[in-house]
Amino acid sequence: MSEETAPTVPTAYGSVSGLVSGGITAFLGIPYAAAPAGDLLFAAPQAPEPWEGVRVADTHGPTAPKPPLGGRLGEITSDPDIVGEDWLNLNVWTPDTTASLPVLVWIHGGGFTTGSSAVPTYDGATFARDGVVCVSINYRLGVYGFGYLPDAPQPANRGLLDQIAALTWVRENIAAFGGDPGNVTVAGESAGAMSVLALLSRDDGLFHKAIVQSGTAHLGQTTTDATKVLKAVADKLGIQATTAALAGVNTEELLTAQNTVSADISQSPDATKYGASTLASCGLSFMPVIDADVLSSRPIDAIADGAGSNIPLLMGTTTEEFRLFIVTTVLVALDTKLAYNNHLKAYSIPTGTWDEYEKGDTNTYPRNAACGIACALLTDRMFRIPTYRVAEARTTTPGAAPTYLYEFGWRSPVTPNDRRVKIGACHSVDLPFAWDTLALDDSKKLTGNHAPQTLATALHSAWASFAKTGTASWDPYDTTTRQVMAYADNDTTTHQAVSDPRKSERQWWDGHLTTG
To answer: Which long-range contacts (CB under 8 A, 24 or more apart) does 65-69 make?
Structure first.
């Protein structure tokens, strides 16, 4: 492919030209659906308007409206804000438009309220370099994407439907970019990972493999609880929780009210106020809703019944996920078990769990302070144990495709608080490794300046190889050996397969976070 001349590629809606660098062509900001404006704001995604001539796709498209990342979290992570109405757009990186290569579709995280495909860490050129066509997408967030509005054209899960529309676009158009529509892997982290599990539970046949990083299938708001959250936002605005009223509110005002409610849910969880199914997510305010239309049950229950069992699955967590949500906030200053009691109760932490983790594996987690104990047990409650539950459920389905698990344990030395408490192996710290973008200044805000490239090479290679083959270099998870690939086990820069890591703490959750 020429370094100087960007190829022109046809799509179902018009031709696009990209930007060539280093033998990789990037096509940025391609609309996969119509702008969700006016009557389409709270409607299911619609096909984009066709265009004539060649659309120049050399810059990222508009990002969905979202509140800024404030406080210390905003200092160590990036969330670009690109203004415009055409939020429903995607990016494609390809090494060869004439090939038929495996495809990886990326769904970003951000708690269903923030994030975008324009985050610099998500540079799909690294996957294209390694023979995988990479696609990253934007989707509607917060009230616009996941607020439950019974009187809306599409009452719930508009953000999920956006993702489905993007995957449909990939199936219909990716061949022209050098991708194989019969070999598509969908991948996501955090809210993106939860989205992947929700999509897996639908069994739509839009993808063939899945990568889930730091997700849970144990979520799904009831319509009753989703109504409570949206009413709280409407109350902040002094309006009724109706489609017309919300559509008439200035976007910035809506985001401010949404952010206020989200902060209340994460910092002062109250099941009476927001509902048990909301708090089951351990801090999320907006999320997929069990609406009997887009989602008929929690993803974990559908997966336990065999949904998506034909899809090979790669799932990972970081060793200290919850440090991102504690050491960057006022919660890092809480210094006793009593101070965390409200969170333990709201998140249905079993009695005795704090004491179990206080005496637990101090080599794996720094537990010399209350915040360290809280981080350890909430990491398992929200991420590690739910990940195991998905793998366990799939082992009971005859003929199920393999499920591979890994854990990322490298600790970042960054200290985003006045107490000099390290962020550690926190939620999202693995992303510059998985994307092989450690060298970016944007990535270094989270990892520091000396993150090990050897570990990035290993994790990125595992993702790229899985996208190609649907297999990993270690054994699939089963309930006998419980093999997990440990990246940077015990703070090293190597990786090795281990059997049943932190077994006693895994067993502590037996009978909890179940299906049904």
So the answer is: 65/141, 65/142, 65/144, 65/251, 65/254, 65/255, 66/110, 66/113, 66/114, 66/115, 66/116, 66/141, 66/142, 66/255, 67/113, 67/114, 67/142, 67/255, 67/256, 67/258, 67/259, 67/262, 69/114
